[in-house]
Each structure stands twice: as structure tokens, then as C-alpha cells.
Amino acid sequence: MTDQQTPEANQIGNANSRVYAIAKQYDLSSKDFIQRLADYGVSVKSHMSTLDAKTLELIETKFSESVNVANIDTANEKVAKEEPTELDLDEDSDKTKNKNIETKKKVNKKKVKSKKNKQEKKDERKKAVKTEILDAEIEIEEGISVGKLATTLNKRSTEIIMQLMKLGVMANVNQSLDFEALNSISSSFDFVPVRRLTLEQINLVDEEDDPTDLIPRAPVVTIMGHVDHGKTSLLDAVRQSNVLQTEAGSITQHIGAYHVELDGGKVVFLDTPGHAAFTAMRSRGAEVTDLVVLIVAADDGIMPQTIEAISHAKAANVPIVVAINKIDVATARPDFVKQQLIEQDLMPEEWGGQTTVVEISALERLGVDDLLELILLEAELLELKANPDKLARATVVEAKLDRGRGAAATILVQEGTLRVGDAFVAGMYSGRVRAMIDDWGKPIEEAGPSTPVEVLGFNGVPEAGDSFYAVRSEKIAKEISDKRQAEHRENKLGTNSRVTLEALFEQVKSGNIKDLNVILKGDVQGSVQAIAQSLTEQGNKEVGVNVIHQAVGGITEADILLATASNAIVVGFNVHPTTEALRTSDAEGIDVRSYNVIYELINDVRSAIEGMLEPEVREVVLGRAIIREIFQVPRAGIVAGSYVNWGKVVHNQPLRVLRNNRLIYEGKTDSLRRFQDNVGEVATNYECGISIDGFDDFKIDDVLECYTEEYIARKL
């Protein structure tokens, strides 16, 4: 439900359109009021939710109806109390003894008349209320039974059933009606059909925030650039820590999220790997960022991965600040880098453009303070705000399976506040926040907007880039999670079931496509995803890489058995096989390899793919001979007396017959002789007799061309 408040809203909304405030005006608890709203078909998340003008009008109408009916009943009770009863008349008989009997009759007559008038008024009021209800726009949610629909519309069930039958829908009183059935009869009975909201639609919808609820938040800055251009070194300079030491080969291979307290405010940095294999990880980083800092080494200039980073930032439509790093080295060429930036449509401000460019040395901390000041300035211009007073919404930055702690994920909170104990849904998995750890390894109790935090409590490892939602209860989270997992299984089965004989036939006709099947295991989900994408890009139309299974964790016996069944190789990144897996791999002859540097993994798989390529066939002409005489030889047939004028003619090799430089026939030599002897080859300037298997239509001056085929290994 949207929470935009308009000037046309009723008096309730003008004061305060929050659920708890409106409930207070009706002397109801928030819980009871929310239940009332649910009965009217209005779903709200919590007592802090706001209601739009249309909903407020509906509430006022519904509650007015209740008040009118209650007033009618109260008035009837009052009338009953005010009217004298026969018992009262008897008790007052002593006081009215001396009164005229005629007067008594008048009183009784008056009483009857008054009763009649009040009953008529009561009936009129009830009729008015009933008419008001019928005249109002009635919304009917799908799933309602025919009987309940009839009651709601004040119609007979038979009327609705008959109308449905006219439209070809067979139904009984207890039958539930879907949206299509309701829509088909809505015009006949003057109601509006409403689709039933799913659990995800009810609980995972991003509500529009009231502007008064928004407060400034820290900017999220993504550091991008080519490998070894100094991204992590810059982060170290800012954080006054050495993140670089934790990475294999001094290359960042996982996304890191860190918050930094500066003099001008707080900034959240995302450090993304620069290796080409992690293009997908950089892309996800750009999707959650507010600002991109593009690192370019002053000595190397713009490299291919720098261009990729620029593309990701432009696709995310976020501002770019360029930091030209390593200006302290002797070979630094910052002006050359600026010229390269122009070629990428990034014109520096000092040259009349709109791109902020700063020259720095992360190692020597030169210009770093200027860069930070410009980042805060850019963030101030963006006017970044978020509502902390609602259920949290975040993005999974990284996820992994920890042996001691179970599934854990680094998330970046974007809206609301996440607290320990909150139930949540992330991708296909759910859980309850058991603990939260900040980027310095300290436990925290809550995390507001623009806060990176590691969360424990998942029942599975989510995908990097999954949306993370806090929900009202663990039950709701589990229901949504179970539904998503069921849909995932159905989709997977559906994909596998689409392999038909027709599809196989089309594949055969297209050229016998071969695949290198790979089972991939890694230490963190982001690495697994990125490596899988990189591997699938290694193939071509002839040979492809099929990652049949990818997961977080060590290589197990089950992985080996799957590889045996699917004729696959098993590769691990920063993980190793178990003892049982090693025994099974030896017994089954399955190739299992572990890597801790991405280059080696990709190169080995690339070599395997190249080994599967059909070799290139190259034709090599061995020699030519010209026919000078044609002989009929007993038991040998027609023999061409030939003179080898170039190269050599080799027995049992392919041979072409050329006539006037046109191909007449192609086959193999049946016999090759010099005089009466069979020979293996005949060199230049020698005469020989040649017969060809399946061909005897020789002519004088025909050219016989002997050739062979060489098979050359291909490279990707």
C-alpha cells in the first residue's frame, strides 16, 4: 500500500495517515485496526505504515457504516427505555386514579403512534445504510466462494451460478472463484475483482517513504579499475589497514565492503576485484553504489578492464570520479591518461568537461585527502536519504559457508534498520539474524542504511547480488523461502525435460556440439559465480563449457559421483577434496584439481577445451605429373603413362585429375610403377605408370595432382 498523502485526503489523513494514529482515533489497538483493514482487503506491513487517500476514504466509509448501524441500535434501545411499559402503568395506577379514563386512552393512543413513527424511521435508516453499501464500489478478492459472494452482493446464489453458466463456467455454492471468473461477471453485478496478493507481494514490496521519514545516509562508493592499479592500496590508505595481505597473490578475489569515518561524514567503500574473471562481481557492485571511483595507474594508462569498469558505471548511471594513481613513479604520465579518458567520453573538469579527476599516490598518501573531500562533495550533491524506521532491505554483497558458523553473508543495508533477531528472506533462503559483525570484526546489535555487515543465521548460502528483506516473522520468511525453492526445482526440472528427440536431431545437424562438463566448487559464492561465467565464455560454437554444478564448500564424494555420471572434471577454487573424495576419484579415474589463483584455473580449462577442438585440416600439394601416354595393361586396366614435372607422386595418397585446370575426378592411386616394379613414390623428372581406383577416363595432357592432409591443433 502506498503511503503518499494528498491534499484531497480526509480529515483523518490530514492529521496523520499512519496506521497507529488512525487506530487511536477510532479507539482501537493497532493490532485490531490492522485486522479490520485486512477484512476490508487492505494489507499493511506494520503500525508504522502510511495509507493513501483512497484507502483513507474506504476506511471512513466502512467505519461510518458501522457507526450508523450502532447509532440505530442505540436509538432503539433508548426508545424502548423511554416508552412506558404495562408494568410501569400498573405501578403508577394509584397516582392516576383520579385521572380521566379518556386521558388514559389518549396516552395509549399516543404511545402506539410514537412506536409506529420510530419503527418507520428505523426502517428508513437501515434502508439508507443498505443503499449506501450497495452504491459504494465493492471490491471482491479472488478465491471467494459463490455463496460468500452472493451474501456480500445481497444476491441469491442461483443468480450468480446462472450467470457463470452463461459464460461457460460450471460452479456450485461452495466453489472458489478465480480472478478470471470474477472478472467475467463483475460487470453484471457491479463489483471490482481484485487479484489475491502473494506472500511476496504483501511482505517484500518496497513501500514509498514519507519524505518526513527520510534522513541523510552515507554514500556507497565502489572502487573499480584494472588489476594491480592500486584499488586495495587506496582502500588501505583510507582505512589505515592492510586488507591486501589477506588476498592470495596480492589480488583481490572477493568483494569487500567497509565503512570509513571521515571528518566530513561516513563513507561506505566497496572494493571489487580487478581481474577480468570477476566482471560479474564488478557489475553487481555498480548496481548498489552511489558513486564510482575509477582507479587508473599513471604508468599503465587505461586497460581493457578499465574500459569494462567504465561501462558498468555508465550502465548503473552513477557519477564517476577518476583517481590517477601512482603519480610518484618515474614513468607516470597523468596527462596521457587524461587524453585516454577523453576517448572514453570522460572529459576532465580542468579541460572543460564534467568528470572529476584527482592525481594521487595511494602508497605515499599523496592527494588521498583531496580525493576523499571530492567524494563527500559529490555525495552531498546527490542528497542521499533513506528511512531507518522500517523493516530492512539490503543486497547480498558476498556469501560463504563457514565450517564453524554455518552460512554467512556480507550484506549492504539500503533501507530500514536490521536488528539481531529479525527474520529475513534472501534469494531462496531464509533465517533469523543470530549475530551481526561489522567490517572490523566487532559484533553489533543493529545496522541502519548504508551499513555493511556480515549476517549469521542463514539456512543456506544465498547468491551474491540477491535481495535481502527483513520480514515480520520467521514463519513468513520460511513460507516465502519454501515457495522460491519449489519454483527453482520446477524450473530446473522443466529445463531438463525439454530435451526431446527433435532437439537432439537439431543439435546433430548443427555440427555435433561437444561440451566440456565441469563441476565447480569454491570458498565463497561470489567467486563461484564469477568463475563459472568466465569459464562459459571460453568456448565457441564448436566446443562449449558446461558448468553442470556449482556450489560453495569443499569437494565431496557426491561431487565425484556426479562427475562420473556426467563425464565431467572437478575443479575447486580455494577448496580441496575430502579423503573420501580422493579415494573415489582414484577409483573412478576422475580428474580433480584445486587452485588458489584464478589465472591457473582458467588457463588449464582453456587448454582442455583446445584439446577437444577438431584439429584444423590443411592441404599440402606433394607434386604433379602430366599424362603423356595411355596404356591398356592386362589384369591392371587402364594405366596413365605420366611424367612427374614438379614435386613427387606418392602411392596411396589422394590424387586429383585436372583437365584444362578443372577438376575431373578425385581419388587415390591404385598402383604406382616404374617399369615393372611397384614403387612408393616417384620424384621430379622421372616417368611412371599411374592407375587410379575407380577412374580410367584419362586424356593426354591431363594433370595428376598428388596431395596430403595435415592436422594442426587449434587454439581458442
Structural write-up:
The protein folds into 6 domains: 11-135, no CATH class; 139-197, no CATH class; 218-383, P-loop containing nucleotide triphosphate hydrolases (Rossmann fold, 3-Layer(aba) Sandwich), CATH 3.40.50; 393-489, Elongation Factor Tu (Ef-tu), domain 3 (Beta Barrel), CATH 2.40.30; 501-612, Translation initiation factor IF- 2, domain 3 (Rossmann fold, 3-Layer(aba) Sandwich); 616-712, Translation factors (Elongation Factor Tu (Ef-tu), domain 3, Beta Barrel), CATH 2.40.30. It is 37% helix and 28% strand. It is α+β, with helices and mostly antiparallel strands and 716 residues long. The chain is built from 21 helices and 32 strands. It has a 6-stranded mixed beta sheet, with helices on both faces. It has a 6-stranded antiparallel barrel with strand order 11-12-18-15-14-19. Strands 24-25-31-28-27-32 form a 6-stranded antiparallel β-barrel. It starts with 10 loop residues before the first helix and ends with a strand. Helix 12 runs parallel beside helix 13 (304-315) and helix 19 (557-566) runs parallel beside helix 20 (579-588).
Low-confidence stretches: 1-15, 69-101, 103-107, 109-113, 125-136, 495-513
Q: Average pLDDT, to the nearest integer?
A: 77
- Which descriptor suits the 3D outline? extended
The fold-level CATH name of the largest domain is Rossmann fold
So, the CATH homologous superfamily of the largest domain? P-loop containing nucleotide triphosphate hydrolases
Helix content: 25-40%
- CATH structural architecture of the largest domain: 3-Layer(aba) Sandwich
Task: Give the strand content.
Answer: 25-35%
Q: Please state the structural category.
A: alpha+beta
Would you state the CATH class of the largest domain?
Answer: Alpha Beta
Count the domains.
Answer: 6
Largest sheet: 6 strands, mixed
What is the number of beta strands? 32
User: How far from one another are the termini?
Assistant: 54 Å
Please tell me how large the radius of gyration is: 42 Å
Strand arrangement across the biggest beta sheet: 5-6-4-7-8-9
